Give the backbone structure.
Amino acid sequence: MKLTLTLPEEFSYEHSLQFLKRSPKELLHTLEGNSVYKAIPIDNEIVLFSVSEKKNTLIIDFIKTKPSTSQQEKTKRFVTEWFDLETNLKPFYQLARKDELLKPLIKKYSGYRIVGQPDLFESLIWAVLGQQINLGFAYTLKQRFVEKFGDAIHWNGNAYHLFPSPEKVATLTDDDLLPLQFSRQKSKYTVGIAQVFAEGVVSKNQLMGLPLAEAKEKLMTIKVLATGQPIMPS
């Protein structure tokens, strides 16, 4: 079964693929030619799909399963966020064309968008994993973490990995994470974030329904964010 997403005028699938190829240690998506394969949990099932481009559309092709209407809609929403399809780049381009520094960049990287992480829990843990280390080692930690504690679905001889769930990570201890070369601080923050997600204290849906100030206050219940320490991978 296939779904299509109409692409905005200012979109480059090629630039998105280049970003997705940036580390051979990335387990959460697989590239084969011009297609990206990914598995995500939706409605208590693992949904495996591929994304490709054809005639100004993204094609979502479901593999192994016939998704429900709910799963179809949630997959479309995921891919839309993943490839940043709803950001309006026109005002930025209008401004950049008048700037001597930006003008050559928008020509070189026309249609480049921020490939995102629609899963808020994954995004926060990824930030913690990259704290005060280089990007290469951050990917090594992520690879070990996903292989050890994440689920996977198998198809056509390949394994498609999922990020570990908050419920699983919330039960871990230093004894589980330090052997993967997590620092004690990373271990503490990783489990702490997982616990507030597993307990329902924080969720993406909750935050999206709040005014900005209230959403920020809610996020401050997560200690690693409240400390104000730099946590993004370099």
